[in-house]
Amino acid sequence: MEFKLRQRELSPPNLAASQFKYETAWKLVEYTEEGRAQQRREMPLPVFERSELAKMSVIANRNKDAKLLEFVYHQVKDSLLPNPTPSILSEVKGKALMARMDMLKAADRLKATIEYGDYRQLPITDAQGLTYTTSVREVEPKRALETLIRYFTDSPEKKRERQAVADARDEQLRMAHMQSRDARDYSVIRDRIAQDFYRAAGVNEDSIVPALTRDQILELNKYSETLSVFSTDRRYFKEVVAISGPLRSAEIQEASKMRSGQSRSQTFSAQVREKSSSQLEKATFRAADELKLVYCAANPVTWFESPSA
Question: If we measure between CA atoms, which residue out of 198, 207, 206, 209 comes closest to residue 243?
Answer without folding.
Answer: 209
